[in-house]
Design goal:
By secondary structure, the chain is α/β, with parallel strands linked by helices. The protein is built from three helices and four strands, in the order βαβαβαβ. The N and C termini lie far apart (about 45 Å).
Length: about 100
C-alpha cells in the first residue's frame, strides 16, 4: 500500500443542512457568555438557522409560527422533560 490518504473519505467542505432549523431551549442561555457564543457559532457551521429560547412556551410559540422546514430541538434537564411532552407529536419537530 502507498502512503497516500484517500480524499474520498474526507470531504473538503461541510454541507449546510437546508430546510432545517435548530431550536436551543435552555433557561440559562446567555448570549453574552463566550461559551454560549462559541456553541452557537459551531451550531451555525452545520445549520444556518439556529434559534434560542429560554422557556418551553417560547419554543412552542416559535414552532407554531414557522411555515415550513423541520426543527431539531436541543434541551436538557427539567425544562426539557416538560417540553418534550408538549412538542413530541408536532409534525414540524424532526428530533429532540
Amino acid at each position: 500500500m502507498s502512503g497516500r490518504k484517500s480524499t474520498a473519505a474526507m470531504p473538503s467542505k461541510r454541507r449546510m443542512a437546508q430546510n432545517y432549523l435548530v431550536i436551543w431551549v435552555d433557561g440559562s442561555i446567555d448570549e453574552n457568555n463566550d461559551d454560549c457564543r462559541n456553541t452557537l457559532a459551531k451550531l451555525r457551521t452545520v445549520v444556518s438557522d439556529v434559534n434560542v429560547c429560554t422557556t418551553p412556551e417560547g419554543c412552542i410559540k416559535f414552532l407554531n409560527e414557522i411555515d415550513d422546514g423541520k426543527a431539531f430541538i436541543i434541551s436538557s434537564g427539567t425544562l426539557g422533560q416538560h417540553l418534550v411532552a408538549d412538542i413530541h407529536g408536532m409534525p414540524k419537530v424532526d428530533a429532540i
